[in-house]
Amino acid sequence: SARPLLEIYSASGLLLASVPSGQLVQLGWTASEDLLCIQEDGTVLIYNLFCEFKRHFSMGNEVLQNHVLEAKVFHTEYGTGVAILTGAHRFSLTTNIDDLKLRRMPEVPGLQKPPSCWAVLSQDRVTIVLLAVGQDLYLLDNTSCSVVTPPGMSPSAGTYLQMAVSFNYRCLALFTDTGYIWMGLATLKEKLCEFNSSVRSPPKQMVWCMRPRSRQRAVVVAWDRQLMVVGNSTDGECRFVLDEDSYLVPELDGVRILSRTSHEFLHEIPEASQEIFKIASMAPGALLLEAQKEYEKESQKADEYLREIKDQKLLPEAVSQCIEAAGYEHEPDTQKSLLRAASFGKCFIDKFPPESFVRMCQDLRVLNAIRDYQIGIPLTFTQYPPWDAVPWAPWQGLVLRRLYPLAIRICEYLRLSEIQGVSRILAHWACYKVQQKDKSDEEVAHAINQKLGDTPGISYSEIAARAYDCGRTELAIKLLEYEPRSGEQVPLLLKMKRSKLALSKAIESGDTDLVNRGTFFMTLQNQPVALSLYRQFCKHQERETLKDLYNQDDNHQELGNFHVHSSYSEKRIEGRVGALQNALDEYYKAKNEFAAKATEDQIKLLRLQRHLQEDFDKPYLDLSLHDTVSNLILDGHHKRAEQLYREFKIPDKRYWWLKISALANRGDWEEMEKFSKSKKSPIGYLPFVEISVKHHNRYEAKKYAPRVTPEQRV
């Protein structure tokens, strides 16, 4: 059969690109508009908006062995994350795909089938999983699995079929097989409202629809071609019939409804718009809008409306209402009508500050430009960031779509500084240009230099590094010719193994440090024995130089070892974990799965030891796993010891030896007897006898003697 086709469309339905694809379990978008394709074996493929493959990563060996049953893509303050439910009914997740740290969530006791529904929550900077099995809800955090009960949940509610978490992770909705909908806080500490939908069939989707800072909260439930909106207002429910199968996408301030032929946006009407446009409204903004319309008709009613507003001293409020309402409108004609009304009202106010009006005109002009169907970025005013925002500026979505001229025109219109706007766009364009293989190195280098020239904020070395990463070494060298800073040229040339050129550039610069570095590395590269001896010297005397050597050779294995060694010199736990995380990344690049897994376990152990130290006010940091578990048992914290046994998959025999030794040292013979009866001992019962005798307790030894196998008896 033919392979499935992966197609990417703009929000207005224009086809951007397509590519043949394998079987996928889930699709999702990152915050930077990359497409994540999650496969059954746990491999996550990353494509840009034009279906060009960027990279891939794996969700780990356990997912590979047990396959992916379900997956979800989620967003937190850490970045874009991926959560996986495996065929073994275990959850694994990463909170940031750009800084991959895989977490295996605790096991749900007795779970033999997939949960009926589950969701990812983010609370107090911790990512957790909420899942439903029948009429029970379980919460999985970093260390434990706990049963939770929503407050005010009806005892006859039934089995959970669907759950939804709000865009900001503050609210949770649950749908049961009796048609009952519970809405409350995601902390499960407060119920907001409940509703009986009288529909028992499982919904295809359930999502939240709410505005930031609004008291109105609503949930949209979708069946085949029917939508139901229920909320905490007294209006009950609204039902909509859809013409075709649709898909819901929850956003910051509403829900997008996508079908094969349409794209609609369902949202709460902002208060300013309600005040102006509701029937028979006497709000100041509504009166000012009518006054302006009558003025255009040259009617005396305009004066009557204005006098009514001015008598109540509400003219500034009327102008502000019209400006605010204009921002929430999508139709340019309605926007213009409201802005004309605001401009009309301003004429009758002394010293009205013009900034809000000017800013709204600018913002709407930009929004209307990017909302055009040929561009296809239908941002709402609430989603639109400030034009001088640093993390995400309005032009970035255009750059991702390679609409560089429009992005530059918007920056110039908004009068952004070159470094903040145009320079960054040109740098993006140049990095895209070096990936084009249909033109020669000379043509690409010349075109980039012609366009960029000496634009402030442009780093030719960064563009050259991108060209080198794309396998175009000669192009990278040509681009470095335009880099005015020799300190940026020489390291990249050395990395490209162009030592002679690096030395000549260093000599041209007149910088003695660069010359010495270039000469030295050039000599060493031709002398393997000398290079080996120099590395040995650096290991003891110049650790940072050693790191540079490994970086230059792309020696990820040794870089990983370097970061592990560095972690021991860190005094703060955060610094140590950071160094180990760097080591983990390098081991993954080196494809050393054993070292990566060992490092990952060490990071997990350090974090758990820090929590233990905080909880019990005893030193646990830097103990081995064996000593940590032993100390927990000695201190009587058996549940915590069991948790480590499960988390780190300590072999049964080793754990039983460790536990009975610690219990005997503690003198807790009652707990030891209880432990011996918990299940069949994987080490037999002779060790129980021996340890009891060793501690001079023949009475306890006699308890276990009958259970020793005949061949072990003397």
From TrEMBL:
Gene Ontology biological process terms from the UniProt entry: endosomal transport; intracellular protein transport; vacuole fusion, non-autophagic
Keyword Coiled coil belongs to the record: yes
Molecular function via GO: actin binding
Protein name (record): Vacuolar protein sorting-associated protein 16 homolog
Main location: membrane
InterPro entries: VPS16, Vps16_C, Vps16_C_sf, Vps16_N
Coiled-coil region(s): 288-315
Superkingdom, taxonomy of origin: Eukaryota
Membrane topology of this protein: Peripheral membrane protein
Keywords recorded for this protein, A-Z: Coiled coil
Pfam family, one: Vps16_N
Signal peptide range in chain numbering: none
